[in-house]
Input
Amino acid sequence: MTGRRAALLAAAACAVAAAAPARAEGIVASLSQTRITIDSDFTGAELVVFGVIERDAATVSRPGGYDVVVVVRGPREAVVTRRKDRFLGIWVTRESRTFSAVPSFYALASTRLLDRIADPRILAENDIGLAYADFGERSVSSDDPFRQALVRLKTSTRLFVERTGSVEMLTPTFFRATLPLPAIVPDGGYTVETVVFSDGARVASRTLALTVEKVGFEERVHRLAFDEPLVYGLGVVALALVTGWLGGVVFRRD
Amino acid sequence: MEVYLPIAETPVNLFVMLAMGAAVGFVSGLLGIGGGFLLTPLLIFSGIPPAVAVASVTPQIVASSASGALSYWRRKAIDLKLAGTLFIGGAIGSVGGAWVFGRLGRTGNLELVIALCYMLLLGAIGALMLFESVRALIRSHRGVAPSARKPGAHNWIHGLPLKLRFRRSRLYISLLPILVLGGVIGFLGTLLGIGGGFLLVPALIYLLRVPTSIVIGTSLVQTLGTMAMATVLHAVGTATVDGVLAFLLMIGGVIGAQFGAQMGLRLRGEYLRAIMGLLVLAVGVRFGVNLIVRPADPFSFAIIAGGLP
Output
C-alpha cells in the first residue's frame, strides 16, 4: 500500500508540474481502485482518493485556503418510503412517499463540517451532504419526515455515510480522503466527485468513474432470476423434484 | 459459515438455515404435515423479507411433497384422477394468488396481509385442533369410546351437478366442490407459502368423504403440482424465489422429516394433535402480537425500480 501511495504521490506531483498556466484552480485526483469486485466473501472495502489542487502564478490568491469534499454516489434508483400508523388497533402502512432518483449508495468525506464550507443553497445545488442530496424530488424539503427516515434507515445500513472532517490536507493543496464501502454495497456504475470550495464558493471539481461489480455463483443465480425468470423458475422446480426424489430414495422406509 | 442469498440479498448462516429446515422437517415428519405454515413464519421472524420467505418456501414444499408422494405411489395409495382435478382448481387459484401477491407487493401491504392471514388462519385452526385433541384426551382418560362417524353418510355436496366418477376413491361426486377446494388451497398456498395439506386433508375426508387410505397421497400430489406452479409464477411475476435459500431448506427438511417420522410412530395421536395445535396457535399469536405492538421503527423503505444511472 505504501508503495502504491508513493507512486500516486509522484504521479500527482508530475501532473502539477506539467499543468499549463490557468487562471482558475484545477484538480488532479486518483482512486486507489477503479473497479471493486464483490464475491461471496467480500466484507467491504476502503476507497482512497488522492488529489492535488492545481494552482499557478496566474491563479487568484485564496487567503481562506481550500475545503475539499469527496462524494461517492451509487446508481440512482426509485425508492418508496412507507410509514406505519395504528389503524383499528393494528399497525398498517398508511402513508408513503416515492423518491424517483435516490442514490443507492452515498458516501461523503470533507475537510470540515459542511455548514462551515458553504451555504445550504450551494450545498444543495452541488448535491452535497445527506441533508441536501438530490433524491429526484426538489419540491420535498430536507426536513420532510419521509426523507429524514430514508436517510436514517440507509445510514443505519451504512449505505449512506457522511464523514465530515475526514479529508486530510497533507499540504495546503494536496489531499487524501478515505471512504468505507460496506459489504452490502450495491453493484453498478459509481461516480466519485471531488469538489473544491474556497470562501464558501465552488472553485473546481473533478468526477471519476468507479465500477462495483458482483462476481461468483450468487451473482449468476441473481442474474438468471432476473434475466430468464421462466428458466430460473423451472430450474428451481427441477432442483426441488430431484432433491425430493433423492430424499425419498435414500431414506426409503417401506 | 455465512452464505449470501442472491435474491433475499442478505447473508445468512448456513447452519442456522439447515437447522431451521431440519426442525420444521422433523415436526412435519412427526405430525405428517407439510410444514410450510411453520417454515414461512420462521423465515419471516428471522429477518428474511416476507415476499422472499413465501416464494422460497414453495419449492421446499415441492421437494418435501415429492418425496412423500413417492412413498405413497409405491403403496398405490394415490387417486391420480382426483389429484388431477384438484390441481386444475389449484392452478387457477395459484394464478390468482400470484396476481394478488404481486399487487400487494407494489402497494406495500403484502407484509400486513401475510401477517393477518397467518394470524387468522393459524389462530383458528390451532385453537380447533387443541380443543379437539384435549377433548379426545379427556375422553380416553374417562374410558369413553369416541363416537364413530357414520360411513357413507351424504351431505349437500353430493347433490351438486356435473358429477364425475373417481374409481380409486370409490366416489361419484360433482366436479364443482373439487375445483373450488383446489382453487382455495392453491390461492392461499401461493399467497402465504403453505402447501395447504393441513386444510386439504380434513376437507377431503369430511366434505368429500375420500377414504382415509387415499387422502394423504392424493393431497401430496395436488400440493406438488400447485406449489411447482406457484414457484414458477413467483419467479416470473415478482422474482422473489431464492434458489439458494430453498435448497438449504430442502436439504434440512428432507433429513429432519426422517427422524420426525420415526419419532411419530412412538407417540399417541391425541398427543401429536395437541402438540401441533399448540404450535400452530403459538405461531398465529406471534403474528398477532407483531401487528399490535408498536413497531421499533414505523418507517421502512423499498426499492421500486433501480439501475438507472
Notes: Chain B has a mean pLDDT of 83. Chain B touches chain A through 63 residues (CB under 8 Å). Chain B has one domain: 2-142+157-292.
